[in-house]
Specification:
single chain, alpha/beta, TIM Barrel, Rossmann fold, Immunoglobulin-like, 4 domains, 6-stranded mixed beta sheet, globular, binds beta-D-glucopyranose, carbohydrate metabolism, Glyco_hydro_3_C_sf
Amino acid sequence: MTAAFDVERVLAELTLEEKAALTSGSDFWHTEGVERLGVPRVMVTDGPHGLRKQAESADHLGIGNSVPATCFPPAAALASTWDVDLLDRVGRALGRETRGNEVAVLLGPGVNMKRSPLCGRNFEYFSEDPALAGDLGAALVSGIQSEGVGTSLKHFAANNQETDRMRVSADVDERTLREIYLPAFERVVKRAQPWTVMCSYNKINGTYASQDHWLLTEVLRDEWGFEGLVVSDWGAVVDRVAAVAAGLDLEMPATGGRTDALVVDAVKNGRLDEAVLDTAVRRVLTLIARARPALAEPGSIDVEAHHALAREAAADGSVLLKNAPVDGTPVLPLSADDAARAVVIGEFARTPRYQGAGSSQVNPTRLDDALTALRSATGTELPFAAGFAVAGAGGDAAPTDAALLAEAVEVARGAGTVLLFLGLPAVDESEGYDRTHLDLPANQVALLRAVAAVNDRVVVVLANGSAVAVEWQDAAAAVLETWLGGQAGGSAVADLLLGVRNPSGKLAETIPHRVEDTPAFGNFPGDNGHVRYGEGVLIGYRWYDTRLIDVAYPFGHGLSYTTFGYSDVTASVSGEGASSAVDVSVTVTNTGDRAGAETVQVYVGDPEAAVLRPTRELKAFAKVALEPGESRTLQFTLDARDLSYWHPALRRWAVGGGRTVIEVGASSRDIRGTAEVTVTGEALHGTLTADSTVNEWLAHPRGAELLGAAFGEATAALDPTMLAMMGDMPMRVVAGFGMGGFDLAGLDDLVARAAA
Ligand code: BGC
């Protein structure tokens, strides 16, 4: 790596052609350099849960091989840990591997919302909740960047499906964007300042994200204070000149100089201000300069320690959905005796499903499978049957293999416990396309039913990157959702089943009964180039809880081998309006006989709001480790933003105030304590005009006074039924009909006095 360079001095010496070249890649994975001025090229590479550094063939679909790197669990599993400290540690390890491989920027994490469980890339995303995704994303980014390398927060924004992802227009109202699809990005930007943000391929309300000035400049930089560089998703730039003008700094990958020439022309003919291009160049140079020190000292990578960390993360990201008693005792964890008499069934025990397909596909340093891990931990050659064949690249589910099934049933018959490894075939979950249903392959469900017919201690271990329907779960005594566990997922499962580790994961996404129940059903994935976000702010549990739709497992759910009690939930409000805050306190106690960790969730409801609000929204959480009998009192402070909604007309955050419900729970449907406070809201009145309705005038202190006086002179208008009928009439109509005791000239006078 060459010596340090001065960004401003280099900028001053660059030709126009060099500036255009610097703001696009030099190849698939490198920025451009300027040798004569000592500016090196630097490498950026995928991401997010491991490094995909390709040595030779370059592609963004995970096809070409890459150097070995630790494959940590993808975001779906990491999110289920609800553990910001763990995410920070995983981030540090990722940062060390990035640096150790002389890569400047790791292209992740992705904090897009899981709008539908069908999204093909959900395994790479954290949650259906923006606060959870934002907190975890910020921790991961801080961890990675603490090693002196950068991240790329992606895909900004409203990239919530793979179908037509490179063109589709996500048609979303602003309130929904502000409350649901943008806040995770906002939180990561404000807390962790990622070195780069990657814009998405899709359009938002008709404008390509790569060319959206409102998104890339007004919101991202002017409002949130983003200081880094905006890079395009690979191939997301449609009109490079428009993109630079909108605030896109770096186009990736290289276009062979084609779009650089367009930028040069645009500056020469005055269509693009050179100062705007200079700003982009400055950001690219700053990024390169920033990466220089770490790249000069790559350091070593502790492969063993990273594998151990991946194992810890996989265990803590697994969610124990169900653990029913058989003969009076929960089936898990297995005692030493149970373990010695267990059998293992399911191809995924031998051939793990541990990551998804596409640009995030990592070439692991090693790979643990559950069968080997269970055999070595128990010291017993546990019997195994594959039970099913996994569907191949054709996409069709493999037919039930009668011989495999019959063999599995024989293995299960008379066994102490059946550890049955099921999940989605790899072909079901990939970048580039979405799923069309929520089901496990039929041959796996048939296997479960057949095995359960001969053994009542069946433990289903699931491997899938996004929610699957679990209508078969009556046949299982226990269900452990491991998501995709990364390279150490196999040994992590053994740790959990054998009770070496106590499960502490919680669902970061709801598990619905049916795809028809899901919020975006009917509006996903859209058609004819548009996807309408018709469910608005009601995504995930916000939808199910507000509409009282029964779910298989709610957001936030997850069992432990111990139990937790909640007590003394209190809430108190301070300040008012835009400086309101609510302090919440709760005591949690480990009421069982094992050490364990509980994630306490704080939800806020605003039942008196002037707009439709979800019944409850997660605003804070904390994971706390407790010894048996130990108690801990947790304090949370909710700020005004946590109490606000995005006011569609005022186009800003607004504290509506009134009765505010604070719920503390173990899931969105397991609320253990509720406290109510009354928040003093802001004055949220727009300017009164002739077009404002009677109700809007009456809701405004000055308007009510003026109208009351005017109506006083037309007493018929005060009749309650009459008032109700008139409530939604614009004042100009009331005046035109002469119903309120004033004519149009009188109304002009009222409007003027209201403004005075
Ligand atoms: C993906 C990005 C990825 C990029 C580079 C794109 O297709 O959407 O997430 O970082 O390729 O591989």
